[in-house]
Design brief:
The protein is of the alpha/beta class. Helix content is 42%, strand content 15%. It has two domains: 86 residues, Leucine Dehydrogenase, chain A, domain 1 (Rossmann fold); 131 residues, Rossmann fold (3-Layer(aba) Sandwich). It is built from ten helices and eleven strands. The strands form three sheets. A six-stranded parallel sheet has the order 1-11-8-7-5-6, sandwiched between helices. α7 links the parallel β5 and β6. The longest helix has 23 residues. The chain starts with a strand and ends in a 9-residue tail after the last helix. It binds NADPH dihydro-nicotinamide-adenine-dinucleotide phosphate. NADPH dihydro-nicotinamide-adenine-dinucleotide phosphate (NDP) binds next to α10.
């Protein structure tokens, strides 16, 4: 039995970023300004600080303007909403990302809903979600769109394939299912109440695992020859003598390699795609907001 191909998200994301940089330069030439992405961070969560720094760095490296807004943890809801309103009105800002989760006293849903759908680079507002469901052009959540890009790069047409999405979150599972439906897959959404999950997953030509449970999907759940996209990022407890545990996905990678045709690794699979697609979304929004044609809408 030959081992599955490893889907290299890191390399794909690097190629995508270089395409983005090319389009960002031609946008600047046509619009007379850089495309701009604003990132709002409330509080001092260390993981969120790392993400925000990384987003800002990659935004600038791609030739776009990065506007960082770091607010104290005790920021009032009204002040955060006022900032969103200013960013909505700012013509230099094409995309607004509010780093989640927000501190507990803030109403996350109300904050997200305040973002203009034309600047909603995370694709989480009700308008963006509705546009996706209706098949209208709009901004789509980054992780599922990045997963779809990897799938299409690997498989070409997805039409007629059975896809099982494990997880039904607003951030990953539901938009992933909508995107696959848009590609004419036959889609099953599984979740914590799904009966006989291994049997459901065994029917899938495409498995998307977005659960948050380390190595839950075993090799004998996977149909031979399936393509497996592992969205999960889980840190195991540290081994003896180590300070940090290993990062693993929701799929038992070693087992999946023996059965599947292709698998994304963790890290280095879906993870690197998320920020690259965020930059892609910001650039698409910039073109729409400035009324500049984007040569390649599939960017
Ligand atoms: P959520 O916790 O919001 O959703 C998890 C989903 O998994 C829920 O729908 C839940 O079902 C389902 N689930 C939980 N346990 C089981 C089970 N035993 N069997 C079947 N389904 C189950 O997580 P997210 O969607 O936000 O994230 C999922 C994973 O993806 C996490 O590991 C996260 O870290 C990772 N992630 C990675 C990103 C990346 O950039 N690569 C970006 C975003 C997330 P129910 O609805 O019934 O509770």
């Amino acid at each position: 039995m030959t081992q599955a191909a490893i889907i290299d998200g890191k390399e794909f994301a690097a190629t995508l970023r270089s395409r983005i940089a090319g389009h960002a330069a031609s946008f600047e030439a046509k619009a007379g300004r850089k495309a701009g992405l604003a990132v709002v961070l409330v509080g001092e969560d260390p993981a969120s600080q790392v993400y925000v720094a990384s987003k800002a760095k990659q935004t600038v490296e791609c030739g776009m303007a990065s506007f960082e807004h770091k607010l104290p943890a005790d920021t009032a809801q009204a002040d955060l909403i006022a900032l969103i309103d200013r960013l909505n009105a700012d013509p230099m800002v094409d995309g607004i990302l509010v780093q989640l989760p927000l501190p507990g006293h803030l109403d996350e849903q109300a904050v997200v809903e305040r973002i203009s759908p034309d600047k909603d680079v995370d694709g989480l507002t009700p308008i963006s979600t509705g546009r996706l469901a209706l098949g209208l052009p709009g901004l789509v959540p980054c992780t599922p769109l990045g997963s779809l890009m990897l799938l299409k790069d690997r498989l070409g047409s997805l039409s007629g394939l059975n896809a099982v999405v494990i997880g039904r979150s607003i951030l990953v599972g539901k938009p992933m299912a909508q995107l696959l439906l848009g590609e004419n897959c036959t889609v099953t959404i599984a979740h914590s109440r799904t009966a006989d999950l291994p049997a459901v997953v065994r029917r899938a030509d495409i498995v998307i695992a977005a659960v948050g449970r380390p190595e839950m999907v075993k090799g004998d759940w996977i149909k031979p020859g399936a393509t497996v996209i592992d969205v999960g990022i889980n840190r195991l407890p540290p081994e003896e003598g180590k300070t940090k545990g290993r990062l693993v996905g929701d799929v038992d990678y070693a087992e999946a390699l023996q059965v599947a045709a292709a698998v994304t690794p963790v890290p280095g699979g879906v993870g690197p795609m998320t920020i690259a697609v965020l930059l892609r979304n910001a650039l698409v929004a910039a073109h729409r907001n400035a009324g500049v044609a984007l040569g390649d809408e599939t960017l």
